[in-house]
Known about the structure:
It contains five helices and five strands, in the order E-H-E-H-H-E-H-E-H-E. By secondary structure, the chain is α/β, with parallel strands linked by helices. Helix 1 (14-29) runs parallel beside helix 3 (75-84).
Amino acid sequence: MSNKVAIISSNGSLFDAYKVFNIATAAAATEKEVAIFFTFEGLNLIHKQAMLQLPLPEGREHFAEGFAKANVPSIPQLVEMAKEMGVKFIGCQMTMDVMGLTSNDFIDGIEVGGAVTFLEFAKDASPTLTF
């Protein structure tokens, strides 16, 4: 059985962020090697400004209060936790180029690479998840 978990983050809502970082930190806590490939709207999850204002899906605004009442960590807190646990963050170079973004637009410690970079990690990962 593989000791790797590969995650593709291609969506950028608050729900997507919680899914990605919940799975990533849970896997890292069980001593799995974890990498997340952030592409398209998924780049918002590690963008310095965008991660602070991720949208909730329309009609689901009431979840914001539920997150607060349940003391669920914020996305910046979860990002920091994941980094501290050794989760590897890969920002999609192609998407960054298309959007006119550079590594300076993102949190510290990300690797910038293409699909091949992620696929090299993911080739023997189990599971591979997409959010």
